[in-house]
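Exercise 3.2. Students should predict the tertiary structure of the chain below and write it as structure tokens, then compare their answer with the key that follows.

Predict this chain's 3D structure.
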Amino acid sequence: MLVEYHNVFVMAAGANGNLYATPPSNANGNDAVVFATIDGVVIGDDQERYLHYYPDVMAAYNVSRLRLASEDATPKTSQNIDLVPTPLDPDDSSSPLVYVAVDTLDNAYNMVLCDFANGASSKIFIVNGRRGWTPSRSRS
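Answer key:
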């Protein structure tokens, strides 16, 4: 499970590929909160769907939806992205780790939660502006 830094919510994956937030108490036993990792890097979920975003939308608005899709259903205009653990404060070796969204070109983005006043499910987006990002390993 991917738990928010303050333990207020966990990230959950909807059947439609949207990522949203749910309180940790609602996530117990819910398969929608199980994510796949390789060496601590989150690549997708347990349903063999991969994380992706939309570079053209990012270039135009500095924000993009972060979504999941199977390899054969990933839109051609999207790009794969992983969630890489990195120190919250890169200058402090004892800083806790947080996830940064990093694409295949080593561009790093912050994740943000968008809550809606009308009570619709919160959605998770990525935005430009990760300060202090340094690649922790070479990427394929």
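Discussion points: DSSP finds two helices and eleven strands in the chain. The mean pLDDT is 85.
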